[in-house]
Specification:
Aminopeptidase; 22% strand; alpha+beta; four-stranded mixed beta sheet; 394 residues
């Protein structure tokens, strides 16, 4: 099952870590279990010196924590389900000036070569020519996920972080839940999630189950689930920059404490000063310049239940990011997500939304947006979308 490591990304997008480190000395807690990224280039003290943009890997782990194991039944009690998989793999890319943010989702069923990594016992693992990407966390930890993503994408991964199911639930609770729109009701016996059509504020356990649901939306595939999660991501981004969170010091401090206590970072991500810089770099990025995209894939010719990289389409994405071009997502998995009619809001009370649905040009932009290939689906944080469920009516 997949969970959403994007929570950490949107926390940083909102700039809340700036306030967090002013009020709390959480450096020791955050860095206690930090992971070293093998082969990573040294990170300069100023992120402005990192040319070509900053890349942060965000991994969602399905590890069964004792505190929450009882809530997940056989998933955590059956020995056959033991282990820890990276069922969510996201790369947060922050461009050079003018700042833009792109979050790329790599599906767990993506079949790729796995490099030799170092396991928990300190032993080198064997290279694998073709395996699902979600075996890398158990194979060699967060570092192995980073190395694999680097091999697949060619991106330098300067920073990485891991979050568990429990972390996602606690962080969602810390901000008072996330509103999600459901166009058609969702009923998923695997997660126990049942939602009627309409808007629902999800917290804790049920927010996690919404992120995990696979058979309740679209065609029941892992790709559909990834698109469904973007409904949550865009709503989460809008809430983070709203008066409810960014304008509420008490919520900010609670959120910061929760994040720092429930995220395992890379050693490059533990500097309070650097975290502040990352937050400031993203703080004022317009919502239409925060894009969530799915890594483009093709059906695996050896297994119809798996996918392989669509490198031709991916190369166009990497080229656009390298050139810091404004991107326009043209593809959409309409089986899992449908557009929503924006509800007018008061910009004075909710700076994260606008009554005008047209995007605001990014200051400093020199040309129009570049259309991504149709095989790259996704949306911007400015777009309000709804999950296309399987029709549950209550």
């Amino acid at each position: 099952m997949k969970i959403l490591g994007i929570t950490m990304a949107v926390v940083l997008v909102s700039g809340v870590s700036v306030a967090a480190y002013i009020a709390y000395d959480l450096g020791h807690t955050f860095s206690a279990n930090a992971v070293t990224l093998d082969g990573a280039k040294s990170v300069p003290p100023d992120i402005g010196a990192i040319k070509g943009g900053v890349n942060m890997l965000l991994v969602g782990s399905d590890a069964c924590e004792p505190e929450f194991a009882a809530e997940f039944g056989d998933r955590c009690s059956d020995p056959a389900n033991a282990g820890e998989r990276n069922d969510t793999n996201l790369v947060l890319h922050i461009s050079d000036s003018p700042r833009r943010v792109t979050v790329i989702t790599f599906p767990r069923d993506l079949m790729v070569p796995i490099p030799s990594c170092t396991d928990a016992q300190g032993n080198a693992t064997s290279e694998m020519s073709k395996q699902p990407i979600n075996v890398t966390l158990e194979t060699g930890g967060l570092n192995c996920v980073a190395r694999t993503i680097h091999e697949v994408s060619g991106l330098d991964i300067q920073f990485a972080a891991k979050i568990t199911w429990g972390g996602v639930m606690k962080i969602t609770d810390a901000i008072g839940g996330v509103d999600v729109c459901v166009a058609n009701g969702i009923s998923d016996p695997d997660t126990g999630l049942e939602l009627t059509a309409g808007t629902h504020t999800l917290q804790g356990y049920w927010a996690l189950q919404f992120l995990r649901t696979r058979h309740g939306v679209g065609d029941g595939s892992d790709l559909g689930r990834g698109s469904n999660q973007q409904v949550y991501m865009s709503s989460l981004a809008r809430k983070m920059v709203s008066a409810q969170v960014l304008g509420n010091p008490g919520t900010l401090l609670k959120l910061a404490n929760t994040v720092m206590s429930n995220v395992t970072p890379s050693t490059t991500l533990t500097s309070p000063t650097l975290l502040v810089q990352i937050a400031l770099a993203m703080k004022d990025v317009p919502l239409d310049q925060i894009n969530f995209v799915n890594y483009p894939v093709l059906e695996d010719p050896d297994n119809p239940n798996k996918v392989v990289p669509d490198t031709a389409s991916a190369d166009q994405l990497w080229a656009a990011l390298a050139a810091n071009q404004q991107i326009q997502v043209t593809g959409q998995r309409n089986d899992a997500v449908v557009s929503a009619t924006p509800t007018p809001t008061d910009p004075a009370t909710d700076p994260g939304t606008s009554a005008d649905p047209s995007p605001t040009p990014t200051p400093g932009a020199t040309s129009g947006p570049v259309d991504l290939p149709k095989n790259i689906s996704g949306q911007s944080a400015a777009q309000q979308t709804c999950s296309n469920g399987n029709g549950y009516s209550g």
